[in-house]
């Protein structure tokens, strides 16, 4: 009969050890990445369009070699995300050439060929060594995907597209973005290669922040 209390005590001890292990793991996870070191708060936080989703926005520039390297890594990571994560892309622009490149992105998006033109624009600049500043060069990215020149011109120069470009520029300034690639998590945090340490580590920090935001929604 004495074995029963002993067994009960053993089970209790095992449960306590398990709870302590979970608690320790949680604390270690929280201590793994620190604000101000591995990620930064944005200058001006924004509210996601859909509050039920955790927004992850990649800020890029077609002329940035690090962005080109980041694309396949980020795309693969994107496929692994849960339904409550909304992935977005936003072009950076600090000068006139970058604004032209931003218009490539939004024109492709408006015409439904972003999935094709996005990669083509990176390849044009880094493989073919084009600057993509002349409209004839820009149009060639769309022409091979069946886009008519008149349709391209109307979209590329439309007021709506210019408004999207300006909004993206305003958002980047609000976030405090100074380099690319940079990823904004839920309108609150900035993650870059310089803060995280590497592009692969960027994804780990992003995963950490997604889990942090997900936990905040449940609390």
TrEMBL record:
GO cellular component: periplasmic space
Broad class of the protein's primary localization: periplasm
Span of domain Thioredoxin: 18-211
GO molecular function: disulfide oxidoreductase activity
InterPro entries (UniProt xref): DSBA-like_thioredoxin_dom, DsbA/DsbL, Thiol_disulfide_DsbA, Thioredoxin-like_sf, Thioredoxin_CS, Thioredoxin_domain
Cysteines paired by S-S bonds: 64-67
Pfam assignment, any one: DSBA
Subcellular location: Periplasm
Keyword Disulfide bond: yes
Keyword set, alphabetical order: Disulfide bond, Periplasm, Redox-active center, Signal
Family: Belongs to the thioredoxin family. DsbA subfamily.
The protein, known as: Thiol:disulfide interchange protein
């Amino acid at each position: 009969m004495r074995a029963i209390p002993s067994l009960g005590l053993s089970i209790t001890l095992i449960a306590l050890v398990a709870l302590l292990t979970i608690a320790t793991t949680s604390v270690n996870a929280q201590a793994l990445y620190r604000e101000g070191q591995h990620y930064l708060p944005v200058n001006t936080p924004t509210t996601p369009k859909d509050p039920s989703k955790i927004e992850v926005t990649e800020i890029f520039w077609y002329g940035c070699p690090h962005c080109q390297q980041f694309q396949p890594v980020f795309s693969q990571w994107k496929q692994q995300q849960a339904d409550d994560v909304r992935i977005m892309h936003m072009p950076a622009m600090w000068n006139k050439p970058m604004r032209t490149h931003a218009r490539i992105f939004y024109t492709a998006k408006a015409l439904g060929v972003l999935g094709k033109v996005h990669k083509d624009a990176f390849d044009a600049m880094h493989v073919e060594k084009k600057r993509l500043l002349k409209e004839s060069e820009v149009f060639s990215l769309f022409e091979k995907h069946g886009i008519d020149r008149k349709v391209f011109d109307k979209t590329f120069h439309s007021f709506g597209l210019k408004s999207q470009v300006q909004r993206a520029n305003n958002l980047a300034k609000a976030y405090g973005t100074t380099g690319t690639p940079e990823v904004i998590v839920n309108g609150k945090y900035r993650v870059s290669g310089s803060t995280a340490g590497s592009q692969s580590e960027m994804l780990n920090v992003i995963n950490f922040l997604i889990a942090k935001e997900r936990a905040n929604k449940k609390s």
